Amino acid sequence: xxxxxxEGTDLRVIAGSRHDPVLLLRQGGLSAGLHRWLSALPAAQxxxxxxxxxxxxxxxxxxxxxxxxxxxxxERPLAEYLEGDLENGAGDLHACVVGEVERPLITMVxxxxxGNQLRAAAILGVNRNTLRKRIRELGITIPKGIDE
Length: 148
Fold this sequence. Notes:
The protein has 8 helices and no strands. It is an all-alpha fold and 148 residues long. GO terms for molecular function: sequence-specific DNA binding.
């Protein structure tokens, strides 16, 4: 592993598991050294439109792992996204984060329903009037076309 410390070494590590790494560590399924090494690596995940589809797929999972898995998937990218905002205290952090997630989510569902707001509201689990209000507030253009 000495070659990793050399100047100019470019390494990309992609690691993922549906299992809790702390539980694996306790049960002996993951070595402590590997866990420390992986935890110390800088994460290249980002919260944004390119991650929304992956988050939606994770949220569509089944069983009790669904909320915990979604939260775990968002924890690190959200921490990186908010790093500077947590200290300056602008007071609009919640609205900013909700808008960043809600805009692509609503757009994706509207695209999937060919712009049918009633179907989109049912999928999202909100009232149609609430959806219309959020579409207006977020400045979302209602897509027209065929289901993807």
